[in-house]
Design brief:
By secondary structure, the chain is α+β, with helices and mostly antiparallel strands. Helix content is about 15%, strand content about 35%. Helix 10 links the parallel strand 46 and strand 47. Helix 1 packs across helix 10 and helix 7 packs across helix 8. The two termini are about 20 Å apart.
Amino acid sequence: MFHPLTQARRRALHLIAVVGLSLAATHAGAQQPQDHYQLPPPELQAIVDAPRAPQLSLGPRRDLAALLQVPALPGIAEVAQPELRLAGVRIHPRTHSASRFAFGNRLWLLQVGDGRELQIEGLPQPLSVASLAWSPDQRYLAFNQVDARSGGNELWLVDIASRQARRLAQGLNTVVGRGYAWMPDSRQLLVQLQPAGQGEPPAGDGIPAGPATQQTEAGAGVRSIRTYQDLLKNEADARLFEHYLRAQPALLGVDGRRRDIGAPGLYLGLAPSPDGRLLLAQRVERPFSYLVPLMRFPRRIEVLGLDGRLVHEVARLPLVDGLPTGNDAVAPGVRRIEWRADAPATLVWAEARDGGDPAREARIRDAVLMQAAPFDAPPTTLATLASRYAGVTWGRGDLALVDESWRKTRQLRQWRIAPDHPDRAPQLLSERSYEDRYADPGTPVTEADAAGNRRLKFTADGNAIFLLGAGASPEGDRPFLDRLDLSSGRSTRLFHSQAPYYAVPQALLDDAGTQLLITRESPNEPRNFYRLDSAAPQSPLALTRFPHPTPQLKGARKEQIRYKRADGVDLTATLLLPPGYDAGRDGPLPLLMWAYPAEFKSAEAASQVTDSPYRFNAIGYWGPQAFLARGYAVLDDPSFPIVGEGDAEPNDSYIPQLVADAQAAVDEVVRRGVADRHRIAVGGHSYGAFMTANLLAHTRLFAAGIARSGAYNRSLTPFGFQAEERNYWQAQDVYQAMSPFNYANDIKAPLLLIHGADDNNSGTFPIQSERLYAAIKGLGGTARLVMLPNESHGYRARESVLHMLYEQDQWLQRYVKDAKPDSGSGR
């Protein structure tokens, strides 16, 4: 029976933790600290260095695609370059760009008709592509070349007819956003440049001008404030942040001619109207905040002319330094503003009608407003919604699709509206829980119009649209393409993935849905692109032939398994077994289970099958699959649902449900004879790490655990986490009971903690792992803490990833593969 922590027990645990943190003793036989990167066995190194499949970007005319190859992981020398962390943004100061390290090093073209590859001449060397974008008329391909070594941040252009590349501009500013966008005429690009004559960044002298001060006053009500990293700390930070964010907007012709647009500013975004005559601009303003990141700073939303002059001020939004409690809380005022894609120059946005507070009773939560240039008439109401606005898919004057959602109940609705006739009553097209994957009708298919704006894809006669879905079913995911008749509302299935393949439509190549670009894969065949003709669905034309990235593991067996939790909830997992393994001959194996819990509002939705048995056996380094190469069985992504039906919140019974999920998974792999009950490890990343620590504290099911970049003390995330929307003071017993830190004295199995030393993810600050490790150490448990330098929530450097695998391999070898029933795991 699970009992929430009493106040007395909380005080006792706190005292134990405080005393424990002061102890210096280490457990007997502990691995010694290391100050050098280590290499895992060669079979794990080979998985890290396996080639990645190229990325494909289809051109607007759908007869040509660009392929971009991204190489293996960068080295730590590149990842450890100077980086600024300001206002929730990580900035590479030398290039005036957002910090990133994955760039394309090969770019070429592919003819969709026959798969012929076309090479591009004149590309910069070494090639380092951060992003690319087709012109609306497909005559050009623009890309951003970022070279950290030289400090270059450039815009390049490929002339498609000649297949020649040339540099168009230097000094892009890509601190926020891509830094460039095509104008509708395909003759110019809207760019954000580093301002000329800006000078060197402001240098602080290290002498503070005074304290950093914040103040709040009673009467403002409860305001939830998530925990954020990389915030501004003082005025010197603020001035430095302004220096790197400031950009000069300009129009840049494909001939290289440049025309500046107004003065430099602190731009969050710039978007041309579909007719190309106006710009929607969003700029941040002072006062900045030491409590929240950039996206919550005060901002000004304006419409500018191409000369930079103000045409219309839409709104001035104040600092958002907190929101009402609840995941459906939003800031008041203009929200999610954009140009209407199917009109020359019309703005559309949402505004909360309940003050942004989900606890307030309201029949209408959001209104969707519309205002056309020249903005001399007041906005009209496009739609009123009973929940939160979740976006619109534009089609034409008589058809657009408006989505709304409410996270607390998981409800989605989609409405058909006529934007040119707002007096017409909207028509409800679908209403369901987003947890109910089986009932998902699919997502409307869009394509770029002549101006480059995404709009609904219609049949040639304009009487139908297309829907693309995952096709979740009791047999697993079977992606589909449907044609939806707009008059009758009836759907006709045009494509449905069939065994033994997992095939996904990527684009329609004609207006009837008979010619498709698809990807196809099977357990032993990697994902590749094909052209499919509905007249010969069994014989698609292969356009790419990407090889198997890990041929040494080609014979690994994969099975999608189903089993039940003790309360009857059906669960799903992917079971993987090493090449050549035979349960009858080889007996049970050591097993690594890797999971991530998910909250549900219904047991029925939690029981639905996920994934597909026909997907490629992708053996990557990030999850558990790599350990197939070391002779382990792997249980990947087993269902760990946490269900709270009706008025119950899922987390009110988090621990007993978590334990029941784990017990069911362990019992199933043991029943199948593939796993030894005494040699099973559990692991996870982020919320999966939180799960891992809890399972070691509350069960004796596992010989060891691996917890990467997790949070373990929920009092350090007091305004919610994951789907939990109550704050600490509303659900203190829940927060305390869910925190494995409070049960550190019950963690008996060895726990490996790995964390990026510079983790910027909200809630998973490095101190979370440091404090749990100190508690386990002080209480006499077995644990190891590995802090990876210069790494964030996901690890980027090759040395870091190799060392991560080394640590995991050593831990599993010692405490799982070589474990015995009485080896000290506490069972």
